[in-house]
Amino acid sequence: MLTDNAVFAASRDSVSKIRIRDLGKTFSLGQTEVTALTKVNLDVTAGEFICIVGPSGCGKTTLLRILAELEAPTQGEVLIARDDPSAPLSSMIFQESSIFPWMTIRDNVAYGLRLRGVDDTQINKVVTHFIKLAGLERFADAYPHQLSGGMKQRASVARAFSNDPEILLMDEPFAALDEQNKALLQEELLRIWSETRKTVVFITHSIDEALVLSDRVLVMSARPGRLKAEFKVDFPRPRRVYDLKADPAFGRMGREIWTLLREEVAGQ
Amino acid sequence: MIVSSNDTVRISADPPKGSTSLQRLLRSDAFASIASPIVILLVWEMLVRVQLLDARFFPTPSSVIVELVSMIRSGEIFVHIAWTVSRVAIGTLLGAIPGLVFGVLLGLSPVLRTFIQPAISALYPIPKIALFPLVMMIFGIGDASKWVIVAIAVFFQVFFSTLAGVVNIDKIYLDVASNFKASRWQTYWTIAIPGALPFIFTGLQLGLGMALIVVVIAENFGTQVGVGYIIWQSWQVFEVRNMYVGLIVVAFLGYCFQLLLQRLQRAVIPWKKDGGT
Question: Does an H or E element contain A23, and which?
């Protein structure tokens, strides 16, 4: 077993896009202090797709919110390498529907670019591209309330990608969807991602989802959250969800991860 | 239609009912909503004619209508309406804009909220019309004081509604804005105002209702025109049919304002499904 302070690094010779060192976060709730994260160490290579799985309440979302600059850590540090100083650092896709009900799908997808004052022809080009990639052409001028949950999350994905950030953060974006839409959106996410090859940190509680999507799965312990183990996932890409699930290696890895996670979930 | 016997239950479509067009007309909502006021007016007319109601206070609806028609013919009524509408419109603009600005600013800033909200809340319970004598001392008895008192009435409604609207915006949208590095100004325009718009409209609706109350009272002072003036003037000369004309016109104006707001709301908030957010 790995020690608490192990650094999970993809491959030591490649460049780290994200470098997390001894990261910790403690919330104070009145008199009591709750440690959500402790001694998290992780290197993520540029272009890598990693998934973090863990029991609910283990601090996965806190870790993501720190990477998204929505919260500040109380210990340690995160380094994110910039390729383009003018590009935004991160775009996050949230679990619940987070596209703005008061904007059309097109305006939602254009949001990041508009805020940065990108010129209209450029916005139009990028937005049209990602709306097409996400299969949203028919709904480009619709408002979110006219769309299903799956379509709304597609719009969220398109909004994050069109912002063209250094890293993409995803907080269980498909957790609220039904099985069939989930499988569909996972494949579509992989397709969009393969075009851009952004560095992705994806949080999920689903072992299957982690194995389907990622290059590497990191297992998190129950609170206080720290990284417990890692698994390299080298199924060839492009991947199809149900082809992959039929692979015996997929089942074996899933069982291995579950054995680790089981202690954490049961021990809570 | 459910028919059950000992061994089966049959569930099938109901047979058509209400086949004649007269039956359908009697059942329609439109018919019901027109019929009841007409019945009331007819009963009223009869009660006055048989002298069960005192015609000095309750003139027959027919005589009021005759009066109304003559004021429409002479064009006199439109002058009064134009003055009242312009006072309400100017006052509403003067009150709604600061109400909106303060509502959004305080809605997004807990610090400003703790400093400023208590002061505004302390002023809120004062009946707005009770401030009118003071307003007239400051702004004179002309139109300016009428604009100001309407503005005060509208301000509070729009302010509190906007504040509630901004505070109630789902936190996730602010997180998205923050993740996309929206500036304060961008957050106001892209999140706070559109997110609070349904509430802002509720505030405008309540505010316009208040505006009409306030303007009718205010038109008792320092003016010879306005719908409120008709009502007060009729009281002084005991011309009760004129007073009823004034009441009808005020009710009609209130109805038109609400209709206008509904139209505006549908145009400005296309993402709001009817009946929900």
Answer: strand A16-29
